[in-house]
Amino acid sequence: MPLLTIENLVVEFATATGPFRAVDGISLTVDEREVLAIVGESGSGKSVSMLAVMGLLPWTAKVTADRMEFEGLDILNMSEADRRKLIGKDVAMIFQEPMSSLNPCFTVGFQIEEVLRFHLGLDRKARRRRAVELLRDVGIPDPEQRLSSFPHQMSGGQCQRVMIAMALACNPKLLIADEPTTALDVTIQKQILDLLMSLQTEHGMGLIMITHNMGVVAETADRVIVQYKGRKMEEADVLSLFENPKSNYTKALLSALPERATGDRLPTIASFMDGFEPAGDVR
User: Fold this and answer.
1) Domain ABC transporter spans what residues (predicted)?
2) How many whole angstroms separate alpha carbon 99 and alpha carbon 184?
3) Which of 16, 54, 116, 130 would you label with 110, given CA atoms 20 to 30 Å apart?
């Protein structure tokens, strides 16, 4: 049984001019130990799809699906209390922009320990011991002292490591990483990716990597889903996608990579208003 199964996910937001469909019929599965990359331009619905899974969309969002299950549990229709027990423990997410995702009013130690208190019920000494272990595992130097640091006292790379530590605190079965390297410089990006893949292998998690970076896709993914304007354009294993893309949008996306440029200027993806259709019967 797959860890996560989604069939025909639709997300609409209420606007002054009527409903706006941000996600339009996305379906996907993720297995244990599998790395699934979801790739596409900004605004293609990648993050919204996963925030729907986490139950973190605002009240203006209407979420429907034929099926949304985690290990057979109906997470779309389960009670809020049951979802709160599941999310953060068995399903965890690393959010974009770690400097703004961490609460600036609390120390990183408090924020990690809060996860352990809520989901595992550990006492104070056990929470602190586990928090130190987690910071050490993600490569934070002097973890005992860093527990007392506030987010603004740490670098962007360190804050991203803290976010990873929080996500891994309860040994989740599925980890969703939303653009985990976007705000970091190239050297730190490589370190964070290596750390994520090492921890994914060590813990045997399923991993969903949301990105617009095709280099990250090539380096990390087993399977790839390409999204455009809320729709799935193509799904393939990573080698097939790069060597033999099926949809015109995927071909345009790959042709815009600098390493594939053949002239003086990079080719551009057709304008947002131009139509792209999925490859075959992709859902």
Assistant:
1) 4-254
2) 11
3) 54
